[in-house]
């Protein structure tokens, strides 16, 4: 057991950096509704000041696809960990939110797309007037490909100061896109190349900004295309984060409020939660190590189940089987057969049926107490002859002949005549001869 506990300690310290990196998180404290105040709250040991980035996601629900949503980077007041602002997005639209602190962009985590709920107030936007961005960026080739180089470019005369790009993966990582050496040509303007170290199939929002702030160049959604090259991917590559996204509880449809909890990059829990989880793992392994040998030893000396309750040492109180399991000997009936006969036949096969009363003798041995007296029963004995070819049916009017086999019922031992004793003739029993003389 102690050995297993020591083995579990390295596992805890292996996962400890993951929990330790989750210094703070954030969540919505009110429902995001059209033209209503929305509140969020930060928990944990972040480094203020904080900022809240609001990014439009998906098409506009307004007529003619009029886009009235702008990217907004809203700072928290001072070193406060709470923020309330007016959401000027129309109902039915969605957005993705990112929280950052002074240590870097996206350190608080990224939400999944959040749907704006309805309200009776729609005065915060003009549904017929779309927004106008000061500049736009472009991509060459036309899509982001896994581990492939892509060129971001723009019109240099439209930007103000330094251009910056950001990558936002809904429900996952948010990060700065590193800017390589700038180059200019007559076809693609000014730009730089970037290798997309992101797994294929990942949805990502690319945001362009300059000195006027994040989002001054707009936002463009992409899905990373597959590639045979995966050499750029490693454990630090941006990706969607397993578990629940950042933002806590927020709606994912206009039908109501959906439940979620904190997640995303660097916001999967607090350090205390990581320590508690590690302790739970250690205690669980210790309990398993403690009970497993005991369970194994018990099963080694356990006795097999005997359904007849028979003891292996032949000295138990249940050595004799229950009375309903006691075997009963098969009794052979007395061969004495009565002499009552009844002859029957069928149209195709002659039979001889003998009905006799066979007395059932009393059993020789029995293990039951108070056994019932022997009963007499009637036995029907049917004797079949060998089947032969069917006889030709008789013509009408002729008597039917039924042949029965010999019954051997009248065979008796031959009676011998009474023994006679020969009579001996003596002179006394022989009549006297008369002698005649002539005188």
TrEMBL record:
Residues 233-262, 349-375, 410-439 are annotated as: Disordered. Residues 1-22 form the signal peptide. The chain crosses the membrane at residues 270-292. Residues 233-242, 252-262 have a biased composition (Low complexity). Residues 421-439 have a biased composition (Polar residues). Keywords: Membrane, Signal, Transmembrane, Transmembrane helix. CDD domains: TM_EGFR-like. This is Mid2 domain-containing protein. It comes from Lactarius akahatsu.
């Amino acid at each position: 057991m102690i050995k297993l506990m020591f083995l579990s300690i390295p596992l805890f310290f292996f996962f400890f950096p993951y929990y330790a990196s989750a210094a703070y998180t954030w969540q919505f404290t009110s429902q995001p509704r059209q033209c209503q105040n929305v509140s969020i709250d930060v928990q944990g040991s972040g480094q203020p000041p904080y900022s809240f980035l609001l990014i439009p996601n998906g098409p506009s629900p307004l007529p003619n696809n009029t886009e009235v949503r702008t990217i907004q980077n809203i700072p928290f007041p001072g070193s406060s960990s709470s923020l309330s602002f007016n959401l000027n997005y129309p109902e039915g639209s969605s957005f993705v939110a990112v929280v950052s602190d002074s240590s870097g962009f996206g350190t608080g985590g990224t939400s999944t797309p959040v749907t704006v709920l309805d309200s009776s107030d729609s005065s915060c936007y003009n549904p017929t007037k779309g927004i106008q961005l000061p500049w736009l960026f472009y991509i060459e080739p036309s899509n982001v490909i896994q581990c492939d180089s892509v060129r971001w470019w723009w019109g240099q005369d439209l930007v103000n100061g330094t251009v910056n790009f950001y990558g936002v993966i809904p429900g996952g990582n948010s990060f700065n896109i590193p800017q390589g050496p700038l180059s200019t040509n007559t076809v693609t303007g000014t730009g730089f190349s970037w290798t997309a170290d992101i797994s294929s199939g990942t949805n990502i929002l690319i945001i362009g900004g300059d000195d006027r702030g994040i989002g001054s160049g707009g936002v463009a959604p992409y899905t990373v295309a597959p590639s045979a090259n995966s050499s750029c991917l490693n454990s630090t590559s941006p990706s969607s984060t397993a578990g629940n996204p950042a933002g806590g509880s927020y709606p994912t449809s206009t039908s109501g409020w959906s439940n979620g909890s904190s997640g995303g990059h660097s916001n999967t829990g607090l350090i205390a939660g990581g320590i508690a989880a590690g302790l739970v793992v250690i205690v669980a392994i210790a309990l398993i190590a403690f009970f497993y040998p005991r369970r194994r030893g018990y099963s080694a000396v356990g006795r097999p189940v005997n359904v007849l309750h028979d003891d292996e040492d032949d000295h138990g109180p249940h050595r004799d089987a229950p009375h309903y399991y006691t075997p009963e000997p098969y009794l052979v009936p007395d061969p004495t057969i009565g002499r009552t006969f009844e002859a029957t036949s069928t149209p195709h096969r002659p039979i001889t049926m003998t009905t006799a009363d066979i007395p059932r003798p009393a059993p020789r041995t029995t293990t039951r107490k108070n056994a019932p007296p022997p009963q007499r029963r009637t036995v029907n004995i049917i004797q079949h002859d060998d089947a032969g070819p069917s006889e030709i049916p008789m013509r009408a009017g002729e008597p039917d002949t039924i042949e029965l086999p010999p019954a051997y019922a009248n065979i008796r031992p031959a009676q011998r005549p009474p023994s006679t004793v020969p009579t001996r003739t003596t002179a006394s029993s022989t009549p006297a001869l008369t002698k005649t003389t002539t005188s």
